[in-house]
Structures are given as structure tokens and as C-alpha cells.
Amino acid sequence: MRKLAILFLAGSFGFIAQASAQTPAQPKATTAPKSATTAKPATPAVRSYDRALLRPALLKEKAPETYQVKFETTRGEFTMTVTRAWAPIGADRFYNLIKHHFYDNATFFRVIPNFMSQFGISAYPAVSAAWEKATIKDDPVTQSNKRGYVTFATAGPDTRTTQVFINFKDNSRLDRDGFAPFGKIDDPGMKVVDMFYDVYGEGAPQGTGPDQSQITKLGKSYLDKGWPKLDSIKTATLVGAAGAAAPAKPATPKPATATPKPAAAATKPQ
């Protein structure tokens, strides 16, 4: 599994050492993570998945020119609008993953304050294994990585698979490194995204977050055991063309914060 590497290396691509996780590179400075007083109950993964997900080579349907995806999460609901013309290859891949419910029960495993929220490792190890080498070529960058824009993470050129990230702020510095946004979440939806639990931060050695290679190997049970406060996706489903979605439901507030922890050294999105 590749590290969702939003590889931010001052203008050049960098490669992340962990094999199946992709990661966007973090800025040099980031705001301190917030700490919470109470844990949110873990959401158990369902026991089944679409068996078609075990055969990535067959899931190559062309996406509509625009389509919307409704995310029901442990923090609330939001809708993403995908515009195929922005990044056709990425939009097609995301469409097929959503159509076959790849992201159901997946966790927002890397949430970095004032940077981005990353997800896209399956809750099921067998599915993750099937997609580990199902890479797609890069799209030209036609949009900027601004707040609310959604982009595939990479581990270098032409290495996109299933991991994506949501920009919390203007991360346009990532544009020059080839990160091509394919969709966008509106302002009401971003109020939900802003509430995702963000205290764990990076995986070791930068922080106390989970190891992406272990998520791939062990699935959601690994996250529920060691990082129970992380938010996750209940369902992610197609809901129609642009403009057809219902407004997002109000976000569930985070627990009251305590004294902030010192910020860890920034890394790339992985």
C-alpha cells in the first residue's frame, strides 16, 4: 500500500518510504493539534463488501461529466461535486470506487490541522490488497488545491490508487507537484469536515497516528483498537448531477478542548 503522499518537497516530487501509502506533504509549520476529553465510540465495520472490488481491472466505467457523492460520516453529512473535465482519469477512478462502495466504513486516518484530511484505505484487508498496485496515470493540474478541493494522493508520478485528501485551506503550493483536484466540497459541507478528530496527527515517528501499512494489512479493526476517536465514513454513495444534492446536515461538535499539544514537525501528505 502506498503512502498517500501529497509530497511537498519544495517544488519537487518525493517518495515516501512506506510501500502502499500515499501522503500529501505538510507545510513546515502547522497549528497545534487539539485534544479532547472524551472518546467517540468506535464504529464497527460491516462484515461484507462488494466482491467486484477484488477485481480492479474490470472497474473502468467512464464517469458522467459531473456527479455528486453524498458522504455520511460519524461527524455528519456532506456532499462532494466531481467535475470530470478537471481531472478525467481521477474522476473515473473515483466514480468506480464510489459506485462499488469502496469507501464505506473507511476512516479519516490522517487529519492534520490547517492542512488536510486524508482517507482511502479500505476497511477490509482483502480489498486493500487488490488495489495496492492498481495505479492510474496522473492528470494535468487544471484546478488549485484550495480549501474544499479534493485530490488523489500519490507516492510519485503515476502512482495514484485509492487514497484522497480534502484541503482544509489554500494548499496551492501542491499544484506544482502534480496534485490534480477532481472534486470540491461546498462551504456547508466543509463545516462537517472541519470537525474531524485531529489530535493524533501523523503516524510514527512524527506523531501518534496510525501506521498506514498496518491499516492496509489489518483493516479497520487496527484503527478501532488503537485510534478509536478517529472519524469514519458510514456510507459514500452517488446522488446525482451537480446541484441535485440536499444541503449538509449540521456537524456534530467536537468534545471540549483541553491544553493544546505542541505541534509536531510538518511532513508531506502520504
Structure explained in plain terms:
It is a single chain. With 270 residues, the protein is α+β, with helices and mostly antiparallel strands. It contains 5 helices and 12 strands. The strands form 3 sheets. An 8-stranded antiparallel sheet has the order 6-7-9-8-10-5-4-11. It has a two-stranded parallel ribbon with strand order 1-2. It has a two-stranded antiparallel sheet with strand order 3-12. The chain has one domain: Cyclophilin (Beta Barrel), CATH 2.40.100.10. Mean pLDDT is 81; it is low at 1-20, 29-46, 242-250 and 255-268.
Mean pLDDT: 81
> Structural class, please?
alpha+beta
The CATH topology assignment is Cyclophilin
Spatial separation of the terminal alpha carbons: 11 Å
Shape: globular
CATH architecture, by name, is Beta Barrel
**In which range does the helix fraction lie?**
10-25%
Instruction: Output the CATH class name.
Output: Mainly Beta
Question: Which descriptors would you attach to this protein?
Answer:
270 residues; alpha+beta; two-stranded parallel sheet; 12 strands; 15% helix; globular; disordered C terminus
Compact summary:
With 270 residues, the chain is of the alpha+beta class. The chain contains five helices and twelve strands.
